[in-house]
Amino acid sequence: MSNIGSPPACTAHRRRFLLQLLKGATASAAFALLNPFEAIASAPAIETTASFNKHPKFKANPFTLGVASGDPLADGFVLWTRLAPEPLSEDGRGGMMNETIALKWRIATDEKMQRIVKRGTALAAPQLAHSIHVEVHDLKPARDYFYQFTAGAFESEIGRAKTAPARSANVERLAFAFASCQHYEDGYYTALHHLAQEDLDFVIHLGDYIYENGISKDRPRRHNSDEPTTLAGYRNRYALYKSDRHLQAAHKQFAWIVTWDDHEVDNNYAGAIDQDDSPPAEFLQRRAAAYQAYYEHLPLRRSSLPVGAQMQLYRRLTFGTLAEFNVLDTRQYRTDQPCGDGVKVRCAAALDERATLTGPAQERWLLDGLGKSRARWNVVAQQLIMAQFDVKAGAAQEFNMDNWSGYVAGRNRLIGYMLRARPSNPIVISGDIHANFVNDIKADFTDERSPTVATEFVGTSISSGGDGYDQRPESLRRLAENPHVKFHNAQRGYVRCTLTPQTWQTDYRVVESVTKPSSAISTRATFVVESGTAGAKKAEGESC
Ligand SMILES: [Fe+2]
Asked: Are residues 263 and 208 in contact, defined by beta-carbon separation less than 8 angstroms?
């Protein structure tokens, strides 16, 4: 079992320290830390705050890491940036002095920033690497807005974000893309370049935003340090990744909804257990540093402000009556891999009721949300392929013990609940495995004739694994042994989804190359789910 042990000694101090950054935090904001799914009051005006620099002087542009927005609600979203004139400076401070900076933000309805509808000031403090997370409210639903920051004499690029439709709105169309696994060394972000050109309402990132590995040889690009374990180390790894212009462009165009997988901390970690079986207390110190750096670099609400080695990331977002997204965290609360890590024959422990990817509280929250939802499409957005997938060709069966196939009882509880409670059109979207899949989630994966309960779309990597491939003979052999898998492909790219009340269309967008700085893109396959019928069908012909 990988329980979260006693928090590190610094936790209380760190919590107090970070909370102080929520200037004049009101009772409702404090409440929101405990109840992250409640609406959070706008941050109070900062004029009451004691010590900050309103007129900073920078030797170079501090907006080197771009801008971002996230978690769209019907009345607003989160704005993010981090001041870092020297983003890769080894001390993790981004070339900033040890002082709090007042930074201005404004929101307009036009991309030239002339019709301003909201403006304010945010404090960028050294304790959070001079990152800011502004929670904007009181905007109109389902509208495009544009935003820009000013710090000293410098202006950021202009970003765009769209608010969600009103909760009661009957939405006719929603489009989003999901992506994961962007190993910097393995390739260029050619897919993100194309993603930024799409016509989308938002983007979902399912984890492995960074990779923690040290420096490799003979890859298209190189990491900037050995494997990070400290806050400065993780900050610099994020800074390297976020210096990529295609990643910046994709953030600039759309609000992102993010969750993590393992590599934001350590490969295949489970709760307080890392891959090297370090003492849990030691690993939790590292996890605290990694979680804080994650928060500092992504457009998350203050409900995700880390508290020591803990961070509230699972959450729910609703888009009118059309779709609801349950965004999961399958790393922080999981028990250790029941049969050990790796691909192997399943042992009895994989069936243990206590083995869990989500932890009991998140599981209850998920089932409860699915049961109460009134949305047409109910999405479980998470990291790991959920359908059973026997990776061993031939009579023997082997499974990847790090994903849902290693935690069978938890998967059965979720599938059993869907079968009983019948949430409308459950769709699972997954990452992690660096390949595209379309799967039927079966009531019983050993019985081809058992009901299909939900539809799963697994998305490939942005770059992890290098150029990849379309089909190989062994993958076709494996497909034959997993009849609930309808499509497999291991090229790089992202997945575009277009929803209407009647249909869910998924387009697998793939690039030719990630080992060259630019590449063409195409749609490798299109699948459609009809509302009311679980399971995707391949669309005839090619779409663009
Ligand atoms: Fe990955």
From this structure: yes
Q: Quick: pLDDT tens for 405-464.
A: 999 999 999 999 999 999 999 999 999 999 999 999 999 999 999 999 999 999 999 999
Count of Cβ atoms closer than 10 Å to residue 541 Cβ: 5
Distance (angstroms) between ligand 1 centre and the Cα of 79 equals: 26
User: What does the alpha-carbon distance between residue 280 and residue 294 come to, in Å, rounded to a whole number?
Assistant: 20
Residues 6+ apart with CB under 8 A from 398: 343, 344, 345, 346, 390, 391, 392
Q: Which CATH number is associated with domain 11-50+165-538?
A: 3.60.21.70
CB 128 within 8 A of CB 294: no
User: Among 227, 304, 215, 316, which Cα is nearest to 267's?
Assistant: 227
CB 498 within 8 A of CB 490: no
Tell me the CA–centroid distance for residue 207 and ligand 1, in Å: 7
Give 389 Cα–ligand 1 centroid separation in angstroms.
17
460 C-alpha to center of ligand 1: Å? 9
Tell me how far the alpha carbon of residue 189 lies from the centroid of ligand 1, in angstroms: 14
CA of 43 to the centre of ligand 1 (A): 35
